Amino acid sequence: MAAAKEIRTQIGSIKNTQKITSAMEMVAASKMRKAQERMWASQPYAKQIRKVVGHIAKANPEYRHPYTLEREVERVGYIVVSSDRGLAGGLNVNLFKTLVREAKGWRDKGAEIDFVAIGAKAGTFFRNHGGNLLAAKSGLGESPEPKDLIGSVKVMLDAFDEGTLDRIYVVYNEFVNTMSQKPVARQLVPLVTSDEGGDESADEEQNRPDNWDYLYEPDAQDLLDKLLKRYVEAQVYQAVVENAACEQAARMIAMKNATDNAGDLIDDLQLVYNKARQAAITQEISEIVSGAAAV
Amino acid sequence: MANSFQCEIVSAERSIFSGEIRQIVAAGTMGDLGIMPGHAPLLTELKPGPLRILGEDGEESIYYVDGGFIEVQPTLVSVLADSAMRARDLDEAEAEAARQDAQKSINEQKSDLDYTRAAAELAEAVAKLRTLDQLRRMSGKR
User: Fold this and answer.
1) Which residues of B are less than 8 Å from A59 in CB distance?
2) Superfamily for B5-87?
3) Is there a contact between B12 and A52 if contact means CB atoms under 8 Å apart?
4) I need a surface site. Which of A16, A276, B51, B62 has the fewest CB within 10 A?
5) C-beta separation of A92 from A171 below 8 A
6) Which of A45, A201, A227 sits opposite B10 (nearest CB)?
């Protein structure tokens, strides 16, 4: 019966693990709902500011802000948005893979790369694998606020203003749906004019002369500087909340899989246990019978 | 000429207002500005203060913004607020208390950092009170 007892202990320990993973699954599910709401809630602002910046790019301003000008790329900055905690399946690994691929592309072109890590996992990644880290921020918790990110974003933008960085990207997981998250790298500065916001009437664009410009109050330089900084902050904030929703979704799926796997394992072990028990009983009976026959 | 235009008010946390309106009055850094349909493209910064909207049906409503930006296009106005709320959600007692607190810390004036923060808080509290004042006058009119 020694083997049977061992199997029983193992089943017990797997059952305990299963309890933990299923509890984590439920916690992640409820957190995901909240994280998703936060993500939807912050989207209007991000979308609207993207629209405004799109208009600015289309306008014909007397003053060209450095953020709107392309320059030769010698140094690239990446803001890497990761989660603070693990046990979220391949979420962070996939993100880092994308990052490494992107970074390699730039290195092949002879550009240097700097990083800003948001989230504990990105910090650990750069500590282990090297990489020039300009700033790191972790422990944002479940409801990150825009002001928590200003510091790390400012480091990047300052570097851009000084001319040390020529291009800045943000890397994060895009929330496709609960089942899938896609790591993406978005260019922040110089600004890329997306087609978003193109929904507002094409006819209006047509009958408008090409050389219009805004009236700026107080003056273009100050205003664009502030607005574009805010734009970058909003984009990074959006990336962080989206990544948070991804984290919970990925964790939920990972924990669901773990719970299911534990169930399968228990079933298999139960079968082995039953067989071992039956074998022991059969052996005992045959021993008794043969003993009785000998008497 | 159309007599209304699309207006979007969003704050970092959520969308506050979206719809057709006839007029919007905002507190710009250079002074209050009223915007009617067909205004020239304009981009300016907002300071903390009230935002008055005249809806398509003539209904007037007041919002409070903590500062931000306003972008005017001939048929579209976007307000990008740092944070915004409906004026009637404002709490007068709280705003008054905040104003007094801020005034007090300005008078005591410990360090530069404290001073700037207190000054910002004061401006905010005063703006909130101004918004409430406007709201009260509006409802008194009716």
Assistant:
1) 41
2) F0F1 ATP synthase delta/epsilon subunit, N-terminal (2.60.15.10)
3) no
4) A16
5) no
6) A45
Q: First CA to last CA across chain B, in angstroms?
A: 30
pLDDT confidence band for A20 (50 / 70 / 90): very high
Contact B14 A41 (CB under 8 A): yes
User: Mean per-residue pLDDT for A53-63?
Assistant: 77
Testing the interface with A: which of B5, B6, B80 to mutate, by most A Cβ within 10 A? B80
Of the options 2.40.160, 1.10.12, 3.30.70, 1.20.5, the CATH number for the domain spanning B91-141? 1.20.5
Residue A262 pLDDT greater than 90, yes or no: yes
Residue whose tokens read 């550009």: A111
Q: What pTM value is reported for the model?
A: 0.81
Contact criterion met (CB < 8 Å) for A216 and B30: no
Q: How far is CA B109 from CA B72, B103, B119, B124, in A?
A: 39, 10, 10, 18
What ipTM did this prediction achieve? 0.72
Task: Show me where the domains of chain B are located.
Answer: 5-87, 91-141
Interface of B with A (CB under 8 A): 8, 10-15, 28-30, 40-45, 69, 71, 73-76, 78, 80
What's the CA gap between A257 and A33, in Å, rounded?
19
Scan for tokens 């990110």, then name that residue: A149
pLDDT tens digits for range A22-44:
999 999 999 999 999 988 888 88
The count of CB pairs under 8 A between chains A and B is 75
CB within 8 Å: B80 and A201: no
Chain B partners within 8 Å of A206 (Cβ): none
Domain residue spans in chain A? Answer: 59-193+213-250
Q: Would you say domain A59-193+213-250 falls under CATH 3.40.1380.10?
A: yes
Do A240 and A145 contact (CB within 8 A), yes or no?
no
Lowest-confidence segment of A276-280, B108-112, B124-128 by average pLDDT: B108-112
